[in-house]
Amino acid sequence: MIASLIKLILSNPSVSLLVLGLIGSLVSLLFKKRPRSKSVIVEAFVAYFFLFSIGIGYLNNFLMHVVFAEYTAKFIGWANSPFQLEVGFASLGMGVTGLIAFRKNLTFRLATLITPAFFLWGAAGGHIYQIFKTHNMAPGNAGAILWTDILLPIIGFSLLYAQWKIAQLTEFATQRPKKAKALDGTCKK
After folding, report:
1. Which end of the chain is more exposed for a tag (fewer CB within 10 A), N or C?
2. Per the confidence metrics, is the pTM higher than 0.70?
3. Separation of alpha carbons 128 and 172, rounded Å
4. Distance (Å, rounded) from C-alpha 46 to C-alpha 43?
């Protein structure tokens, strides 16, 4: 079981980068002042998800579709195509915004995640179609890549939701004393 998990991580860049993002998050938290708030902990996981899974992941996708197009096409179970160049350059844009999102705010990160999420879910739909239509069971079509195409956006949106929820709770907690004072007449206008 452990050997299979290690093989999955090493043979799939999406899984490898997700794991590296988790490791990066944990290492960064070791250097944070204690006690660590929920906000600090979630920020670490969100930031390193964007750095590794989106930023580095899509830069890798750019390289694979542009520089190693023949290999990538074979891995997916397709013939090489000029469309890979277009996918590669779209991936370059997503990768660059992912790197920028590493240190940006929630709104920027949400906007950054929307494009790769729809790209991945569209790719997953294409993989499923190819499985049923042409029986394409190539590792790059029906393997772990299918699952990461589905799950990475869910993980990303879940992390952003957690960050948003904590921000809302923090804002409510800081606003509540002001509102309470206003209601009891002790707050000056």
Report:
1. C
2. yes
3. 44
4. 5
